[in-house]
Every structure is written in C-alpha cells, then in structure tokens.
Design a protein that fits this description.
31% strand, disordered N terminus
C-alpha cells in the first residue's frame, strides 16, 4: 500500500489556503498581525466605498486568478478575485511576507 499525497488538480480553485507555494507559519499569537493593509489599499477601499469586511470577504471567499513575480525582489504577488459583502466583483493584489503576514497591496472593484 502506498501513501498518496493530495495535490491541487487543474480544476480545483486556487486559494491562499491551498496554494502549495505559500508559506504558512505556525499559529499566530495575539500579537501577530494576520494581514497588513498598505496606505494605497486603504485609499482604494475608501475610493470604492468598501470596508475592511469587504476586503476580508474578497480574500477569504475568493480565488487566486494570477500570480505575478517581481523581477528585482523575486517576490510573488497574488491577484485574488472574489466578492464584496453586497456581491460586487472585486480583486485584491497581495503578497505573503517572510513572517507569513499577508500584505494587501491594493484592492479594487471590477
């Protein structure tokens, strides 16, 4: 009998939770930030009349639709497509920091 390691099939939705390329740190403590919102992303939230709860809903219920690699830093950015609380389509661009903290680069309604 051999053990089979589950993998993501091409049909499976890709999320940050199941992306094998995303480093997951041990469980965070109360002092650790789970995510950080850039000033630019905060401005975009305000401009599009979105709340932090909309942002969280996009990330938690959305799917990774694109990965982008920064040529100079070699960091990977993720474009996450999801929905706001009122059902509007929106996207978040984010990266995962070395400590495992999600850094929100920008957010916008599509």
């Amino acid at each position: 009998m051999c053990a089979v390691t589950p993998s993501i099939s091409p049909r499976s939705p890709r999320t940050l939770a199941n992306d094998p390329g995303v480093h997951r740190p041990p469980s965070p403590t109360d002092q650790d930030a789970l995510y950080v919102v850039s000033t630019h992303a905060a401005d975009e939230l305000e401009d599009d009349n979105l709340t932090i709860l909309d942002l969280e809903n996009i990330v938690l219920s959305g799917q990774i639709v694109e990965r982008q690699r920064d040529r100079s830093t070699r960091e990977t950015k993720y474009v996450i497509q999801g929905g706001t609380l009122d059902g509007s389509a929106a996207e978040v661009v984010a990266k995962v920091g070395h400590s495992g903290t999600l850094f929100i680069i920008t957010v916008y309604v599509v």
